[in-house]
Amino acid sequence: MPSASSRTTAVSAVVAAALAAGLLTGAATTSASASSPAVSSPSAEGQVRIHDIQGTTRISPLAGQQVAGVPGIVTGVRTYGSKGFWFQDPNPDADPATSEGVFVYTGSAPTVAVGDAVTVSGTVAEFVPGGAASGNQSLTQITRPTVAVVSSGNALPAPVTVSERSVPARYTPAGDPAAGGSIDALPLDPSRYALDYYESLEGMNIRIGSSRVVGATDPYAELWVTVKPHENASSRGGTVYSSYTAQNTGRLQIQSLAPLTEQPFPTADVGDVLSGTTEGPLDFNQYGGYTLTARTLGKVTSNGLRRETTRKQHDDELAVATYNVENLDPGDPQKKFDALAAAVVDNLASPDIVALEEIQDNNGATDDGTVFADRTVKMFTDAIVAAGGPAYQWRSIDPENKKDGGEPGGNIRQVFLFNPERVSFTDRAGGDATTATDVVRAGGGAALTHSPGRIDPSNTAWTNSRKPLAGEFTFRGRTVFVVANHFASKGGDESIVSQHQPPTRSSEVQRHAQAKVVNTFVKKLLSVQKNADVLVVGDINDFEFSGTTEALTAGGALYPAIKSLPRSERYSYVYQGNTQVLDQILTSPSIHGFHYDSVHINAEFAAQNSDHDPQVLRFRP
User: Torsions phi, psi of 90, nearest 5?
Assistant: First the structure.
């Protein structure tokens, strides 16, 4: 978080001294220097209260102004990260839209304690976590504070219970078109919209009862719960994100106010329960929005979630999988290779073809021009054999150095693994990083000019992004075309708690263009051979209901096979407590009667070998 000096205008020495003495009032503004912010007018009883600072919109009516002697009781102290404390007025007003709590940014470890009655003087500021370009809402706070402790050991203001009954079903109002789609200036309606409800509690002492975990504990000591146990529930305990209007209003991020050195954060998987009472101030941060910063943290009760195992394919079934192995390179510990290999063998039942995403070059993120990945793949295939799996052969195309995005220096790419005891690969030379494969007629059917080959790699749709890898396989005498993809990431998109509603999803422009290129290629295959078996697989980085998927399937060229699953099982990734689809397998019209499985072995668990769940499709060509 930026320093205080970067977040507010400096207070002049004259004003600071007056504030410290508690003498500066609205009538004294003429004594401040001309460069100082104006001092707020007191409320009717002659004193600015916290609800006056918070106001009835997301932006404080006193933003940029100085306030003096604001009273309240300290409800939480944060001594790490963005250091400061929350305090709350024990005498609220009657307006449900105005929060009674606010964060005081001190910049160093606060000297107050929970239960202290204090008065705070300082400058009201609106801090945007992640910066203005993030599109995030702002956090109202007091900066450059002078704090006076009036007494200690006071009872805290009673917490507001956040529950299924209190959180509205509607997520957010639409943004004001005249303000660029922003909701910042709209009057809060906490009885109607969930985001307004949470904003009306910003900085206040809240609590939740026993709540189901919908986002596993992450490396940053955070987890997600839902206070609405029946809201879009997944089959395994999560909350399914099934449309742009199904944001799951009951989700809350949970952090601890205690440093990890003092109180280890609990480890939880999706479906576990954070039981008992969790209580503390409601914060707003860059990585999740509204967050209960727990002063009192409940206990995790395990629900015993297990990693799934798919069934073995029958002799006459071709099994094709896609798996994002999360920046795999030889610098990773052998145990990661072993765990990923065991998943391929045991959980995925050794598919005939596996399309891998995020295979890095032979020295990983070391940026020295290396693009070969043969060592990475050999370590992985050797680990599969050691786990009792087949001796997979592999095909790929090395990218140009630093042209395909991903971790700098890593040169991630897609790789085909195939079991030569079950499948043969048709090699047609000439494909490289810059040479496009094409479709021709051969032997009465469609064929690739280069196999493996890249699809239209010079197209601007693939700038700084992975190019699709196409391969031609034969199974039981039938040709099957597989296109492995890793579309552009969602980096740069505004979050669903953005001040802009609907949020700006700038990254999807590139994915839409990429989807159109792949769709055009598939249509060309089908124009040459109407009944060609084509599978488009990989980390599409977009939802089954997205414009990206619509562009991929345009004209009936492809079908998103994950839609064959019940809605409660459609997911491959968990983000901010939303279980959602990023990884997909799409089928051409000739592929029917298939069996699809999203094999949940990573995304719902605190202990992950990748952050994605693999996908498997079995069919009879």
Answer: -75, -5
